[in-house]
Design goal:
Largest sheet: 4 strands, parallel
Number of domains: 1
Order of helices and strands: EHEHHEHEHH
Radius of gyration: 15 Å
Number of helices: 6
Structural class: alpha/beta
Number of strands: 4
CATH superfamily: P-loop containing nucleotide triphosphate hydrolases
């Protein structure tokens, strides 16, 4: 099964995966990939743009490979704001879309506390894109921050 976990920055997407994925599952998370590709002491968030560039390439390769293995294992993929093309691809693979959203006020508070101010723009864009859609209940509370 393919799980596409979406939501604004600092919503708790990685925490949701930590609570649901098994050790035998594949987890494709850009933050984790970037951290894995950088040296000791690199930040968990607010990574250098060149590190993110390399991690993006690794992420695309990981997605392509993991989608070929869905009959053998579960894949958890974080995709903050999938576009129509990505959603169509995920739909072809019968993905379950999981929206993790503890609410805009909580997200903005978390971003202010531990993320780059640039993430505020990403979160604002995420919420604007969802305006007018019914709010889904979050499948599970996020971690306590």
């Amino acid at each position: 099964m393919l799980y596409v976990v979406t939501g604004p920055p600092a919503a708790g997407k990685s925490s949701w995966i930590d609570a649901h994925a098994k050790p035998s599952d594949i987890v494709i998370d850009l933050d984790r990939l970037t951290l894995a590709l950088t040296g000791p002491g690199a930040p968990n968030w607010n990574q250098h743009p060149l590190h993110i560039r390399v991690a993006h390439r690794a992420r695309y390769a990981a997605i392509d490979e993991a989608l070929q293995l869905l009959d053998q294992l579960d894949v958890y993929l974080i995709h903050t704001m999938p576009g129509a093309k990505a959603l169509a691809k995920y739909k072809r693979h019968k993905a379950r879309i999981v929206v993790v959203d503890p609410g805009e006020a909580v997200v903005m508070q978390r971003i202010e506390a531990m993320r780059s101010p640039a993430m505020e723009r990403v979160a604002t864009r995420w919420y604007r894109a969802r305006a007018g859609r019914p709010r889904e209940a979050m499948p599970q509370a996020s971690r306590s921050w």
